[in-house]
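Much of the work behind modern protein science is quiet bookkeeping, done one molecule at a time. Below is the pair of lines this work produces for a single protein:

***
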Amino acid sequence: MKLFITIFFLIFNADLSKSVEPDEILENTELEEIAREIGRNLRCLVCQNEDIENSNADIAKDLRLLVRKKLTEGESKKEIISFVHSRYGDFVLFSPPFRYDTLGLWIFPLIFFIYLSYLFFRRKN
């Protein structure tokens, strides 16, 4: 029974659903790896908590193709991310930029950690 459960979880947790289709893959393996890295840093606009490399949405496919097209045209990683960011806004980035209007996203976890530490040590004493 343990063997069956183990095999079941291995089969259904395997990453068999890679969304990059064979016709999207670049022949140059270095460029393909860069494209996948960029894709893992861009959020799917439909799926929201999934990167464009693993999303099956049509817009994610379009973004994957756009990233690969721009790479073959010679654009850098930074230029491509900047282009997509300017077109779709902060939401498309998994790591929001550090600006005044996103300050809470960066500061709140630190404040929360300090507060929890304070409660923990206060309760301990």
In short: Residues 103-124 form the longest helix (22 residues).
